[in-house]
């Protein structure tokens, strides 16, 4: 069964080459290369019907590209759709507009029901996780939904923005052991994150998020392992100052968690002073606030 955005991607490619349904399908009078009916192809493009992989391969040849190139276009299309959705979710979350997030959730459910494309299902879970994490109404991520996400993430060899974001939003609904297994598996795929700077940025962001998660959970074993791997990721003279400062924040929180209080205080105070010197007083103030709160919590 053909899934995801295959039909929609095919239509965009066909229209970009100004080719008719009849021409591509071979459904015209005296055609020597009939593949399928133009009605069937139209239904495929609208995600209303499947076409066998054999026929898709032949149809793709009519577009002047290889099947492998077509699959690349499909993946890019899905990532673009996911990226737009993620950007909107992040904007609404920053605004605290949970009513609109709920609307996005319901719209994604409707799209998935209508088109049976998994991208809409993952979108719905991302929105639902935000609602559940912020205790909006009675939204919850079920065990089955969490398991579906885990199974999906294990099946993907190269994570993109959608997988990173999905994993990040579902952190609170997965077991600590499973979260650790995921991040270690990703960090071991050096060929993936060394392939491009964008891939490495995604891995750095995810490592930061998961390390902070385990620090907040006071899981010393997993935190120690990840803080070392996080440091190794940044072990490059070309690594930008932003990522290094982000690491300093995580490292400071880590030392406070393992009771090396003075070391943690020094790191966070130096970070705060650095942000202030570079003209970021609000960030400097936020770092000092976090330090104060963590020290107060330790004394309770």
From TrEMBL:
It comes from the Bacteria. GO terms for molecular function: DNA binding. It comes from Lactococcus fujiensis JCM 16395. InterPro entries: Cro/C1-type_HTH, HTH-type_regulator_Rgg, Lambda_DNA-bd_dom_sf, TPR-like_helical_dom_sf, Transcription_activator_Rgg_C. Residues 37-70 form the HTH cro/C1-type domain. Pfam families: HTH_3, Rgg_C. This is HTH-type transcriptional regulator.
